[in-house]
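Deliverable D4.2, example record:
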Amino acid sequence: MSTDPLSRFSLRAKTALVTGASAGIGYAVAETFAHAGANIAFGYNSSPKAIELAASLENASGVKVKAYKCPVNDPDGVASTFASALDDFGKIDIVVSNAGVTWTSGALIDPSDHKAWKEIMDVNVDGNYYVAKEAGKIFKSQGHGSLIFTSSISALIVNVPQRQAAYNVSKAAVAHLTKSLAVEWASFARVNCISPGYIFTEITKFANQEMRKEWIRRIPLGREGYPVELVGAYLYLASDASSYTTGSDIVIDGGYTLL
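Output generated by the structure prediction step:
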């Protein structure tokens, strides 16, 4: 074990697969990992710029970056992405299960059908299961690996003023899946999650100005965060610096959940 603390944060010669990598937190994580030396399997769903973004990141970082269309709510698509990435890179050391959708339908009894609930669960719960299943098979075969879920403070508290019970439930499932897999996979992989607070990304565009003002009023640091302010935690969990860390949930929320 290296005694140089900074070298333990290096991802050189490792391969990371990141879902939801074409924007927001996912792109910030993929970019950070690439500059830390990891080759990147760049998972995306519908972004028309994903392949271009992957190529640009490869040029900027000097590592191998390849884009894969990976709709996480499709188990066959997820399995195909992992198989292709394993074939292209030879191994997968790190998986960041980041893809997710938010709930914009209002109170749970408001929607006229079950489609909104099903979409949330298909992506945020089942999608994380599909990703974890494929990652786990590879990690067990290799004898090592680090799986990082993107959860949310919504797994821990009830957000206001928006009504988003479905989203909160889905993220609570992710947080508990993290803990359960950390125990089940302890012999061959580490499993952790990160719970961001209000981060300025595409996923929060549903909020109007009055809602955002209420969020900020409740955040001790007085503002929303940015994806770049999360990446240090992802790097820590992906790297050898966190070799004794599993089953953890790192909350990064500007102090929101303290009040």
